[in-house]
Automatic annotation (TrEMBL), chain A:
The keyword Repeat belongs to this UniProt entry's keyword annotation: yes
TM ranges: none
Subcellular location per the Swiss-Prot or TrEMBL entry: Nucleus speckle
Broad class of where this protein is predominantly found: nucleus
The gene coding this protein: THOC6
Role played: Component of the THO subcomplex of the TREX complex which is thought to couple mRNA transcription, processing and nuclear export, and which specifically associates with spliced mRNA and not with unspliced pre-mRNA. Plays a key structural role in the oligomerization of the THO-DDX39B complex.
Keyword presence, Cell inner membrane: no
Family membership noted in the UniProt record: Belongs to the WD repeat THOC6 family.
Organism the protein comes from: Capra hircus
Name of this protein: WD repeat-containing protein 58
Record text on subunit structure and interactions: Component of the THO subcomplex, which is composed of THOC1, THOC2, THOC3, THOC5, THOC6 and THOC7. The THO subcomplex interacts with DDX39B to form the THO-DDX39B complex which multimerizes into a 28-subunit tetrameric assembly. Component of the transcription/export (TREX) complex at least composed of ALYREF/THOC4, DDX39B, SARNP/CIP29, CHTOP and the THO subcomplex; in the complex interacts with THOC5; together with THOC5 and THOC7, plays a key structural role in the oligomerization of the THO-DDX39B complex. TREX seems to have a dynamic structure involving ATP-dependent remodeling.
GO biological process annotation, one example: central nervous system development
GO cellular component: chromosome, telomeric region; nuclear speck; THO complex part of transcription export complex
UniProt keyword annotations, A-Z: Apoptosis, Developmental protein, mRNA processing, mRNA splicing, mRNA transport, Nucleus, Phosphoprotein, Repeat, RNA-binding, Transport, WD repeat
GO MF entries: RNA binding
TrEMBL record, chain B:
Name of the encoding gene: THOC5
A GO term for molecular function: mRNA binding
UniProt keyword annotations, A-Z: Nucleus
Source organism (scientific name): Capra hircus
GO cellular component: THO complex part of transcription export complex
Main location: nucleus
Composition skew (Basic and acidic residues), residue ranges: 22-42
Family: Belongs to the THOC5 family.
Stated name of the protein: THO complex subunit 5
Region annotated Disordered, chain positions: 1-42, 304-329
InterPro entries found in the cross-reference section: THO_Thoc5
One of the GO biological process terms: mRNA export from nucleus
Subcellular location: Nucleus
Length: 341, 682
C-alpha cells in the first residue's frame, strides 16, 4: 500500500558516511570521572566521548541521555588507553599522552591541558601507547606500548624519569602490585614481567606460553590482559585465562574459556573477564564459570567498574569493544542498556 | 250540575264584591258605547293581597257549606233539602267568586308577562344599539390609525440632505423663505429638486449610451482591419522561410515549437520553458522537443458538458439494462484507465555527453492525478555488449532511481492521489510505473509542482522559481548519473572476466605485485543479500534498502577464499559502495569473530575517499576491489605461524611491514604507503 510503505530514512552522502563510521567504530578505552557521574570513552578514530552516567541511570532517562554529552577529537590515532586522576583525564594513543581537565571537559572546544611524548628510540614509526598506569603514592604515570618499554613520567613535573627495557615485543597491558610497589607488564612476546618501581629493575619474569596447562599455540603467545591482587595474578590472551600465584610463579587455576580474553579484573571475590565473544564472564576463584552475561558488541575490549565513593548510585559495570556502544550493567546479572556514540 | 250552571254563568260578568250576580250582554254592550268594561282595567284597581284573602275566605266558606251539606245529608230529614238547596246556592255564589278570582289572577299574570316582555324588548334594542355603536367606534379607530400610519411614497426616496439641498437647488425650487418655516412645503420643494436632478441624469445617460454605440462601431471597424492583416503577415512569413534557412536562424521552427507549447498543460509548459532557457544559457548539449498530438490536446478543451454527458449517459446506460452491463472488473479497469490518463503531449529532453552517449528523457503529465512522470533511455555512441551483472545498471526502470536521496519514484508524490486511488481500487502506482513512467520528486519540481511533504517543510516556493533552482542541479546530477553508470558498465564487463581494471592514475594506491585474484563477480538479489549471515549489521543500520544494487565478489589466493558482498547505492559514486567480508581459510572469519576482517572492511568502507581517484570518481569501485585484493595478501602473509603445526607457512611474507601487530586488537598493517612501498598501521 502506498500509505503503509516502510521507508528507510533517505540517506545522503553524509548520513551514509556517518553510518559507516559508526559501524566500524571500536571503543578501546574507558575511564570514570573522579566524581563518578561521567564516563569517558575513547575510540579508534581518536575521538573521546563523555557520557553522563547519572543522567542515563536516572528514572527519567530518555534516548538522548544515552548519547554523549560531548564528543571531541582528542588524538590523531586511536585512543588506546585512558586513566583518571582526581582532577584530570589522561588519554593516550598514537605515541602521545594528553591531559584534560574533568571540570572543563564538558565545555565546547575543550583543549588539552598538556601533552607529552616519551622519548622513543625509533623515529620511523611512532609507537602506540597501549597502557597507562597510575601509581598514586609516587605520583607517577607509567606508559607502555609499541616500543617495548615502560616509561615513567612524574605527574608533577612532566619529566620522564626512567624507561624499563626487557620485553622483546610490544606491551599490551600493565598492572600495579601495591604492597611492594611493583608493576606487572604483559606483552606480545608472551611474558609477564614484574618490575620494582624503586630500583627500576626487572624482578620476575613469567613466560606464560611455556606452561603447558595454559598455552594455546594456535592463538599465539601474546598476553592481552593482566590483573593482580598482590599475591595473585590473572592473565590471559593467546594462552588461556589463568590464575597465578606470584611468589611461586605457578598457575593455580586455568579458566576454561576458549576465546582469547582482552580485559580481566578482580571484583570482590570474583574475576570478571571479557574478550572475543559477546559476553562478560564471571569466574569464581576456583575456576568455575559463575555467569556469562551477553553484551551488545561482538567482541569486548575494556571493562570499567565505577567504584567512585562520591556517586554510589552510578555504581555500574560498563563494557565496550568492537562497536560504537558501551554496555551498562547495573547489576552483574544482565545488561541494562547501552550508551552509544 | 253545579258545573253546568257555572258554564251557563260564564259569560256573566261580575263587577265586584257584593255586586249583583246578573250581568247581561246587552248591558255590557250599552256600557261599551260610553265606557266599556274591561276586566284588565279592573285588575289594576284591585289589591292582590285582598283578593288572596277573599280567596281564602271563600274556600273556607265552601268547605264549611260542604261540610254542613254533608252533615245534613247524612242526618237526612225533610228540612234538609231546603237547607241543602240554600247552602247549594251559597256555594254556587262562592264558586262564582272563585272563578272571578281565577280570571283576575290569569289577567294579572298575563299583564305581568306582557310588561316584562316589553321591557325586555326595549333592553334588547338598546343593547343592539350599543353594539352597533361600539363596532363603529372600533372601525373608526382603525381607520384613524391607518390614516396615521400611512406612508406616502415620497418618504422612500432618499432625498439629499437639507444643507446640500439649500446649497444646490436653484432658488425658484428651494424657495427658502417659504420652506424654512413649513416642513410640508420643504418636503415638496425637496421632491421637486429630486425630480429635477433625475431628469438631468436621465439625459446624461442617454448621451453616454449613444457614445458607447459609436465607439463600439469604431472597434468593429478596427478589428476587421486587423484580421485582414493576419493573412498578409502569414504570406510574408512564408516568403521569408527560405531566407531563414539560408541564414541558419530557425526562428520558424522555434516558433512552431512555441505554438505547440501553448497547448501543453501548465507543468509541462514550465518544464519546457525552463529547459529551453537552461539549454540556451548554460548547456548547448541539451535539446528540448515536444511530442504528441496537438489535435488531441485541443480536443481536451471541448466544453465539459459533452464529455460529462458521455460519462453520465454511459453510466446510466450501463445501469439501465442489466444484460449489457460489463463486468465489474471491466468497469473498474475503465475507471482506472481514465484516472491514469496521460496528456497527449509530452516533452522530450535529450542530454548529450562528451563521449557521445546520450540520455533521452520523456516527460508525461497525468491529468487526473496532477503529477508528472518521466521515462528514461540511455543510448551510447557505440553499441554496448551488456555484461550479465550490469543488467540493471542502465535499465530504464532503475537508471534514474534515487537521483536525490530517497527519491525512488515508486510512489506518487501527490498525497491527494491516495483518495482517488481508493475509489478505483488502485493499490499503488508502483504497478503502473513501467507503463506510465516514474513520478520522481525532481520531475515534479522541474515542472513547478510543489506537493506538501509528509514531514513538515518550512519553505514554500512558487512555480517557476522552484523549477529554475532545480534545473541546473538536476541536469548535472543526471549527467553524472549517466556517466557513472556507463563507467560501471564498462568496469563490470572487465570484472566478470576476473580483471580489476585499475586506471594508470590510480596505480600509486597499490603495490606493484598483487597476488590475490578476483575470481567471480555476480549480481545477487536484495533478499539474498539480507539472508547472508555476515551482512546483518548493514541491514540493521538501514543501509540495505530495496533501491540498491547488490553484488557478490569472490577473491581467492591459494586455499583462502574471501567473499565480499557489495551494496551499490544508486547515488554511486558520491555514495560509496559498502563491502562486507567473509574469509574462509582455516575456519570462517567474519567481522564478528576476527578483528582483522573488521579492519579490512574499515579500510575499504570508511577510508574510501582516498580511493576515489581523479574526479569524477568513477574509479571508486574498482579501486576498492583492488585494495581488497591487497588486504587479503597482507592478511594471509602476516598470519603468525602456528608453532605446533608442522610445515612451512602457506603464504610467505613478501610484503614489507614495519610491525606485524599493533594495538590491543593486534591489527595487521593494512595501510599501504606510497612511494616507499611498505605497509604500516593507520
Amino acid at each position: 500500500m502506498e500509505r503503509a510503505a516502510q521507508q528507510a530514512v533517505p540517506l545522503g552522502q553524509m548520513e551514509v558516511f556517518q553510518a559507516l563510521q559508526r559501524l566500524h567504530m571500536t571503543i578501546f578505552s574507558q575511564s570514570v570521572s573522579p566524581c563518578g557521574k561521567f564516563l569517558a570513552a575513547g575510540n579508534n578514530y581518536g575521538q573521546i566521548a563523555i557520557f553522563s552516567l547519572s543522567a542515563a541511570l536516572s528514572s527519567e532517562a530518555k534516548e538522548e541521555s544515552k548519547k554523549p554529552m560531548v564528543t571531541f577529537h582528542a588524538h590523531d590515532g586511536p585512543v588506546y588507553s585512558m586513566v583518571s586522576t582526581d582532577r584530570h583525564l589522561l588519554s593516550a594513543g598514537d605515541g602521545e599522552v594528553k591531559a584534560w581537565l574533568w571540570a572543563e571537559i564538558l565545555k565546547k572546544g575543550c583543549k588539552e591541558l598538556w601533552r607529552r611524548q616519551p622519548p622513543y628510540r625509533t623515529s620511523l614509526e611512532v609507537p602506540e601507547i597501549n597502557a597507562l598506569l597510575l601509581v598514586p603514592k609516587e605520583n607517577l604515570l607509567i606508559l607502555a606500548g609499541g616500543d617495548c618499554q615502560l616509561h615513567a613520567m612524574d605527574l608533577e613535573t612532566g619529566t620522564f624519569m626512567w624507561a624499563l627495557r626487557g620485553h622483546t615485543d610490544y606491551i599490551h597491558c600493565l598492572a600495579l602490585r601495591e604492597r611492594s610497589p611493583e608493576v606487572l607488564s604483559g606483552g606480545e612476546d608472551g611474558a609477564v614481567r614484574l618490575w620494582d618501581l624503586r630500583t627500576a629493575k626487572e624482578v620476575q619474569t613469567i613466560e606464560v606460553y611455556k606452561h603447558e596447562e595454559c598455552s594455546r599455540p594456535h592463538n599465539g603467545r601474546w598476553i592481552g590482559c593482566l590483573a593482580t591482587d598482590s599475591d595473585w595474578m590473572v592473565c590471559g590472551g593467546g594462552p588461556a585465562l589463568t590464575l597465578w600465584h606470584l611468589r611461586s610463579s605457578t598457575p593455580t587455576t586455568v579458566f576454561p574459556m576458549r576465546a582469547p580474553q582482552k580485559h580481566v579484573t578482580f571484583y570482590q571475590d570474583l574475576i570478571l573477564s571479557a574478550g572475543q565473544g559477546r559476553c562478560v564472564n564471571q569466574w569464581q576463584l576456583s575456576g568455575e564459570l559463575k555467569a556469562q552475561v551477553p553484551g551488545s558488541s561482538p567482541g569486548l575490549l575494556s571493562l570499567s567498574l565505577n567504584q567512585q565513593p562520591a556517586a554510589p548510585e552510578c555504581k555500574v559495570l560498563t563494557a565496550a569493544g568492537n562497536s560504537c556502544r558501551v554496555d551498562v550493567f547495573t547489576n552483574l546479572g544482565y545488561r541494562a542498556f547501552s550508551l552509544s556514540f | 250540575m253545579s258545573s253546568e250552571s257555572s258554564k251557563k254563568r260564564k259569560p256573566k260578568v261580575i263587577r265586584s264584591d257584593g255586586a249583583p250576580a246578573e250581568g247581561k250582554r246587552t248591558r255590557s254592550d250599552t256600557e261599551q258605547e260610553g265606557k266599556y268594561y274591561s276586566e284588565e282595567a279592573e285588575v289594576d284597581l284591585r289589591d292582590p293581597g285582598r283578593d288572596y284573602e277573599l280567596y281564602k275566605y271563600t274556600c273556607q266558606e265552601l268547605q264549611r257549606l260542604m261540610a254542613e251539606i254533608q252533615d245534613l245529608k247524612s242526618r237526612g230529614g225533610k228540612d234538609a233539602a231546603v237547607e241543602i238547596e240554600d247552602r247549594r246556592i251559597q256555594s254556587c255564589v262562592h264558586f262564582m267568586t272563585l272563578k272571578k278570582l281565577n280570571r283576575l289572577a290569569h289577567i294579572r299574570l298575563k299583564k305581568g308577562r306582557d310588561q316584562t316582555h316589553e321591557a325586555k324588548q326595549k333592553v334588547d334594542a338598546y343593547h343592539l344599539q350599543l353594539q352597533n355603536l361600539l363596532y363603529e367606534v372600533m372601525h373608526l379607530q382603525k381607520e384613524i390609525t391607518k390614516c396615521l400610519e400611512f406612508k406616502s411614497k415620497h418618504e422612500e426616496i432618499d432625498l439629499v440632505s437639507l444643507e446640500e439641498f439649500y446649497k444646490e437647488a436653484p432658488p425658484d425650487i428651494s424657495k427658502a423663505e417659504v420652506t424654512m418655516g413649513d416642513p410640508h412645503q420643504q418636503t415638496l420643494a425637496r421632491l421637486d429638486w429630486e425630480l429635477e436632478q433625475r431628469k438631468r441624469l436621465a439625459e446624461k445617460y442617454r448621451e453616454c449610451l449613444s457614445n458607447k454605440e459609436k465607439i463600439l462601431k469604431e472597434i468593429e471597424v478596427k478589428k476587421e482591419y486587423l484580421s485582414s492583416l493576419q493573412p498578409r503577415l502569414n504570406s510574408i512569413m512564408q516568403a521569408s522561410l527560405p531566407v531563414q534557412e539560408y541564414l541558419f536562424m530557425p526562428f520558424d521552427q522555434a516558433h512552431k515549437q512555441y505554438e505547440t507549447a501553448r497547448h501543453l498543460p501548465p507543468p509541462l509548459y514550465v518544464l519546457f520553458v525552463q529547459a529551453t532557457a537552461y539549454g540556451q544559457a548554460c548547456d548547448k548539449m541539451l535539446s528540448v522537443a515536444i511530442e504528441g498530438s496537438v489535435d488531441e490536446a485541443k480536443a481536451l478543451f471541448k466544453p465539459p458538458e459533452d464529455s460529462q454527458g458521455k460519462w453520465y449517459s454511459g453510466s446510466s446506460s450501463m445501469s439501465s439494462s442489466k444484460r449489457r452491463r460489463p463486468t465489474l472488473g471491466v468497469q473498474l479497469d475503465d475507471k482506472r484507465k481514465e484516472m491514469l490518463k496521460r496528456h497527449p503531449l509530452s516533452v522530450l529532453l535529450d542530454l548529450k555527453c562528451k563521449d557521445g552517449s546520450a540520455l533521452h528523457l520523456t516527460f508525461y503529465y497525468l491529468m487526473n492525478l496532477n503529477i508528472m512522470t518521466v521515462k528514461a533511455k540511455v543510448t551510447t555512441a557505440a553499441e554496448l555488449t551488456t555484461p550479465i551483472s550490469a543488467g540493471d545498471l542502465l535499465s530504464p526502470d532503475s537508471v534514474l532511481s534515487c537521483l536525490y536521496p530517497g527519491d525512488h519514484g515508486k510512489k506518487t508524490p501527490n498525497p491527494a492521489n491516495q483518495y482517488q486511488f481508493d475509489k478505483v481500487g488502485i493499490l499503488t502506482l508502483r504497478d503502473y510505473v513501467l507503463d506510465l513512467g516514474h513520478p520522481y520528486l525532481w520531475v515534479q519540481k522541474l515542472g513547478g509542482l510543489h506537493f506538501p511533504k509528509e514531514q513538515p517543510q518550512h519553505t514554500v516556493i512558487t512555480d517557476h522559481s522552484l523549477s529554475a533552482s532545480h534545473m541546473e542541479t538536476t541536469m548535472k546530477l543526471l549527467k553524472t548519473r549517466v556517466q557513472s553508470r556507463l563507467a560501471l558498465h564498462k568496469q563490470f564487463a572487465s570484472l566478470e572476466h576476473g580483471i580489476v581494471p585499475v586506471t594508470s592514475d590510480c596505480h600509486y594506491l597499490f603495490p606493484a605485485k598483487v597476488v590475490s585474484r578476483l575470481v567471480k563477480w555476480v549480481t545477487i538479489a536484495h533478499e539474498d543479500y539480507t539472508e547472508l549471515h555476515f551482512t546483518k549489521d548493514i541491514v540493521e543500520a538501514g543501509l540495505a534498502g530495496d533501491t540498491n544494487l547488490y553484488y557478490m565478489a569472490l577473491v581467492e589466493r591459494g586455499t583462502a577464499k574471501l567473499q565480499a558482498a557489495v551494496v551499490l547505492n544508486p547515488g554511486y559514486s558520491s555514495i560509496p559502495p559498502i563491502f562486507q567480508l567473509c574469509l574462509n581459510w582455516k575456519g570462517e572469519k567474519t567481522n564478528n569473530n576476527d578483528d582483522n576482517i573488521r579492519a579490512m572492511e574499515s579500510e575499504v568502507n570508511v577510508c574510501y575517499k582516498e580511493l576515489c581517484g581523479p574526479r569524477p570518481g568513477h574509479q571508486l569501485l574498482t579501486n576498492q576491489l583492488q585494495r581488497l585484493c591487497v588486504l587479503l595478501d597482507v592478511y594471509l602473509e602476516t598470519e603468525s605461524h602456528d608453532d605446533s603445526v608442522e610445515g612451512p607457512k602457506e603464504f610467505p611474507q613478501e610484503k614489507m611491514c614495519l610491525r606485524l601487530f599493533r594495538g590491543p586488537s593486534r591489527i595487521k598493517p593494512f595501510k599501504y604507503n606510497h612511494p616507499q612501498g611498505f605497509f604500516s598501521h593507520r
